[in-house]
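Integrase catalytic domain-containing protein
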Amino acid sequence: MRAFCSDIKQTFLQICLANKRKDAVRFLWSDDEPCVHKKPKLQVYSLNRVNFDVSSNPFLIAATIKHHIEKFKHEFPETVELLDRSFYVDDLISGGNELKEALQTSRRAKYIMEAAGMDLRKWITNDANLMEQWKKEKFDVHPVHETVSLGANETKVLGLSWNTHEDYLTTDTKSLLEFVSLHENTKRFILQAVGKIFDPLELISPFTVRMKCLLQDLWREEIQWDDPLPTNIKKEWKKFIYDCRNKSKKVGPLTVAKFKEFEIKLINHAQRTLFDKKEIPSNISNLFPFVDGEGTARVGGRLEYASVPYFLKHPAILPKGSKLSKLYFNSLH
């Protein structure tokens, strides 16, 4: 996939206000110093362009772009459809499966937006050949470093850091770690800290799911907002923060072993609701359950000496009706 992104130069200043709307953005101005003149001469001005700090700006920009690109839907129908779903305020995030497709899309996007006086700039991509072609065609490209080092060849894409050289996204945990260093470990603190992790696409959900499980455990403890954390939860929380500090060491696709590890964690968490009771239900005790070295409750029984894989010989026990059980059922049937 040849991905690329760009943004519109001085977006707000490219949108003019209709004359009949300018009364809503009038303001007073005086060249006289207030401390010198008791009655300074006031002049009434109004803005001609969209103001930066107006809460409706995202809508105004989106509506303006949509109105403009619709003019080209007969000339470039596929590109217009793509642009319609690829703009996030003033950021364009798109691409193509092949170099030719990505290049054509970027050319047409540039042409269409220039017709509205909107210059797409800071073009950046994960494809070196596409970047070279942009340079030849005088695109305003994002600077790319020849040497690979921490922070080099990185740009922000909707709050996430994108390393275009190795083509991976990272989530910044700096604000979380700074927050952790200034506060005590309490229930209120953990809830606030979890909100510091920005992951809108849930790209790191295999990592953050640990926190969701931890929060559920925290609610079961029924402690007050500012009470110290129980020892077991405090231990898990410290391990999570330790992993956040070491995030830069873990780069690359998830391995099969990691997926298995996450699966075991989810199973163990689901089993807690089943074994929290003082007595194990009779329908479960008949399965001769035991807990393995990973803390997972499994079926004992008569397959001990069967020549089948361990997970078939001793399947994990899941609560009836749990969300995880339903997910397994749906994936297998």
